[in-house]
């Protein structure tokens, strides 16, 4: 656990200022010899030791973190300046539903999975290790990816406690990847990974003034990730800048034989990766459709959104306003999404649990029983109504109701996102990230979305983001748009900790 792990001895003060440093900045410092990976890890450990008692963004730090940092420094000495690139020697926090075959736990924040043993690293973790990244620790989250109970607040788990917002410490951070967003925003790690089924990357990123990329479903492997739904789950980066997020994305995309969806999605990965889309003039010629109606507008921040639209126009974009999403009422009702999620979760979770080397639970029914027998008012005080409803479902993935719900979600996508993009010749749809309708629309489609900081709402200065939603495999064009606007607006500032 975090509290039991301290850096060895006095933490040296590096010549290089680490706070808010990008991956590129850090690699340049490593190359120049003004920073080591060991100093970097020690800085983050000290930062977590100081801030985590209040923010509770991190569940645990790897007891091997310093050893891994030393290995990275040794590798750099042996291979010279050419090794100072990408994620080599860079500490990354993982959401605690992403499996690591090491001394870290993988529990989705739940007591039921404490001391379970995973058979292997998650597919994305293997790619990160192969790239030389330091698996630094596990970030807090909404327990079971906010699928256990409607009573629990976002960002709470019995293992990690209540994640708080670094910009307003009496507020939580909406979305289940809360620890990942707060951890990177508060400079507890260089970069982080989250997962999204519906809003769990882009929403916490929005409320922590950081960047979140929710990739097309299947673009990143879900193998070894505690699941909600194979139809909607996606793994993506949460970072302080678009450039850092793309650095991570380039590493984690690609085929994994243990996740069949990655084979088809690999066709969307551009030759040369995603960094080629980091263009300061990326807004030039882009047509952006602004979603309107009661589900897509927040009056309190409409002025800030208009400023961003004006900035985009000045950079060569065309803004098409007042677009109504067809069938928005049905999408927001979540009827079809809920049915698919409940059936998928019951099935997909059992498959994940069955593959664990060691576990106290092997099914959703086991988890419900465990929670009933181990309720603790301090650690585990919320109910499990969502679990119980999912367990009670009689339909399975072969049932007509399930097939109808999937077919209806496909219809809503084709006659919603696809219809607007095609009819108005758009590159992306745009809305405030905080409106749940944007993540719902992306979730049932399995389409990508990117959120970047858009401003700070009065009177408390609480952050909010702007979200860009595209069709399947459109990460490249979304990166062009989001990066160009990020560079033009330069909105993020670190939290006043």
Automatic annotation (TrEMBL):
Coiled-coil regions listed in the entry: none
Protein name per Swiss-Prot or TrEMBL: Amidase domain-containing protein
Question: InterPro entries this protein is in?
Answer: Amidase_dom, AS_sf
Mark the transmembrane ranges.
Answer: none
Name all Amidase domain ranges.
40-477
Q: Which organism is it from?
A: Selaginella moellendorffii (Spikemoss)
